[in-house]
Amino acid sequence: MTALLTELSNAVITTFGHCGRGNGAPSGMDDLIEDLAQALVDGECDEPAEGTFAATCMDDRLRTNGTDPLLPNVAGGCFGLLLAARAVHPAYDLETCTARRFMQILKDDGLPVYAHIDQQFPESDQTGCVFNDRMSLIGTIGPQIADDMMTRLGADPETRMMASGLADRIRLITSLSDAGTDPFGEDGLSRLKAVRDAGGTIEVLRGSHAPLGADISFRYGQTLSRNLLDADHAVKLFHLDAWSFAPTAAKLVRILPRSAEQADSHTSEEDLIAQMTMAMLLTGFSAMSVICSPETLLVIRS
User: Fold this and answer.
1) The pairing of beta strand 201-205 with beta strand 114-118
2) Domain segments of the chain as ranges
3) Handedness of CA 277, 79, 115, 299 (dihedral sign)
4) Is pLDDT of 4 > 60?
5) Per-residue pLDDT reduced to its tens digit, 218-244
6) Which of 35, 95, 155, 163 is deepest in the core (most CB within 10 A)?
7) Quick one: which H or E segment has residue 227?
8) How far apart are CA 18 and CA 33, in angstroms?
9) Strands 222-224 and 46-48
10) Is 195 exposed, middle or buried (0-12, 13-18, 19+ CB in 10 A)?
11) DSSP string for residues in 229-251
12) Tell me, what's the pLDDT at 117?
């Protein structure tokens, strides 16, 4: 597991292929793909990250004030962390993983609680980013995505088995009832309300997603600077700081109260961390697949 998430022998430069669910190929691909991919591999737009706790969404847009906080990126921001915590088995207690309780635990520990709303959603249906709005779809396609993702990363059979099991569990915990709520009795609006009630930061990001590609980085301590990327290459990318998932999971395992089932089964911290780390990776790639077309550039780099 550690080797998978920290050591890639070569950068992977490809497209989403059959995993891409988005509509329409990004413009300018033929002209920019080679130069942009090489710039990413060379780290031309990387800057030191401000910490190791993944807190900012992989969104391709700058914050509303035009800044890039350089916090490590995870799909969905705090919603991605919530789903990772819900995915482990044996599970945490139901109350621990309600959005309301989870966001308050983060806030009480001084951790960032951040979410955004996409401007294109109607005001009556502002459920947050695509990750929150389409969480059920991300879970549904997860089992199909997991095998492809593990192949791209050269995972061993044991890791592939863990990824497959997690993907199946994520599909179950994101399934919707006839009332449109998940197994925790929540929907996109109630999850967003939990962020607001915990005193978290919620902002509306303007404009629609128009990324040329997606970047998954295992380079410890570095994150992609949107300011540098826009200035040097005039393009937008989704970006995941996969290197930060393990330390983020370790922090979550320390602050979330263990369930009786976890204690009785003598589940180790290492196992919970490994499951959360993998869940962040799988759901991140699934979320990217939802919005990226088959032709969208994908770079995975160590």
Assistant:
1) parallel
2) 2-301
3) positive
4) no
5) 999 999 999 999 899 888 899 999 999
6) 163
7) helix 226-233
8) 19
9) antiparallel
10) buried
11) HHHHH---EEEEEGGGHHHHHHH
12) 86
